[in-house]
Amino acid sequence: MITSLEARNISVKLGGKEVLHGVDFTARSGKVTAIVGPNGSGKTTLLRAMTGEVPHHGQVSINGVDVASLQPWQLAAIRAVQPQSSTIAFPFTVLEIVRLGLSAGLSAADSSVPLQALACVGLGSFAGRMYQDLSGGEQQRVQLARVITQVWEPIVDNVPRWLILDEPVASLDIGHQFTVMDLARSYAARGGGVVAVMHDLNLTAMFADHVVLMQAGQVAATGSPAQVLTNETLASTYGCPIPVNTTPPAEMPFLLPQARAALAIQPGE
Amino acid sequence: MSALTTDINDADPSDGSAPLVDRRIRARQLTVLLLLLLLVTSILSLTTGASSASLWNALTDLAAGRDLSTMDRVVLLDIRLPRLCMGILVGASLAVSGAVMQGLFRNPLADPGIVGVSAGAGLAAICAIVLGSLLPSAIQQFLGTALVPIAAFLGGWGSTILLYRVSTRGGQTSVATMLLAGIALGALAGAASGVLVYYSDDSQLRDLTFWGMGSLAGATWTKVLAALPIIGLALAAAPFLARGLNGMALGEAAAGHIGIAVQRVKNTAILSVAGATGAAVAVSGGIGFIGIVVPHLLRLATGPDHHSLLPNAALLGASLLLGADMIARVVVAPAELPIGIITAILGAPVFLWILLNRRGNLGL
Prior knowledge:
The complex is a heterodimer. Chain A is α/β, with parallel strands linked by helices.
């Protein structure tokens, strides 16, 4: 039984220009896989190719099944996708938005899952509020609650389900960044798969099991955070020196970016 | 855990602890109310009019086993009853078409009138009125008074298919392109109608005005039976669109991710709107604003869930059009106003009100 999300030889052209050049990608269930890289390196494009949002060449399979052979509702039963941002056209309440994640939508029988999901993202008391009245960060967490509702059980019939998150902490304060990343970790720990596009390399080092570093539409490095987040790869990928240190207990890498001017006058140079 | 407590404290107690009202229950209660409203407006519609024929007299006659007087029979059964049926069909069709279009375009101002379906149907009708005499006389005799409705219906379908072709690439319909193409089509239809007005004689001009404003006055059983299957089919498709349209509120991509066959929803929605609008314009001319006002009022009352919005829109649309028709019949009796004037007077302020409330928030 294959329990991974795999993309083979993915190429994407946007506006006549090839922005992904034959990328291979593998994420295993039970792990948090982070896609990182500088702006324009193709992180989000890779994610959108894997979710079918942009036309692409190459094959994407989930749990060994080619996604092109699945109907939308079959795919929705095994993976949920959180968009980067989401505006809603009509005055839905927070609970109604989350209930859209249930497989029968708003006509579904009452279920406690949407309220539990809202509590998970720290919005337990927001169920009756209007989605349009919330702040950007709150809206992002409502969307996450909807996405988690869709694949609430990480494993169904011994088959893992997948959370695919596009910059899930982009507009969140540091406390809620941890709430969301803890949620992703615990989903993976219970056997589900998590793939997330990330910007924050420290959060990536803390929460990801596997890191895919993108550069100019190709994979520059893959491996554990300690393998990928090194002085050399980060300097060559991001084009500026980013000194990497480690912190106990597990020798986890951490980055403390400094201004170029400060680096230039380091003692001993 | 600390994050969770912070959040509860952050919540503004005045609205953060808003009671969790289940709008589904309110929507079901509203459905019952709207059914009663439709019953009342239907009875009023049968009793209102220039003629003194009375529903009450007719019913007492029937109850006493007497035959209806000829006048009661003609006025009630051949004039008011088909007019009532057509009002219900057209009102329901306009309101549901509006709600479906708005769900599809994710925009509360979208309406068949805006994407050019009504304009296409109207242009074809005007062509038929002005240029119909150029047709071979055999065809003219064969079609008779059905010429204009048939042309309107074909125009509605044709313009929808044209719009769809223009705005669909590789199986994906671009909503923004479709809205803009609809504006272009509307402008083109307006210009063509303007040219045709120069070629029309006085009686044709009166027909054009009357037809352009819309009216239920020409209701006959023939027209009702012609419109019934198409509008009925479109209304029957609506419940199957509800979940898809709810999902579309998240955006097309997100709708796909929650398991909705987006392209199928779009195809069904466009076809049913084209059918219902074409049929409605064909039998009653251009009646505006029902499709914008009704869904908007219902969203204010019970929220945007299409499972309740679509059936309630059908009921309220029917009642509203019957109400407008009664006003149109009595204000200048024994003559009558085109019903489109009444719906525009009622609808345009609501349209502006939506616009003002959503300033800066009119995402396409």
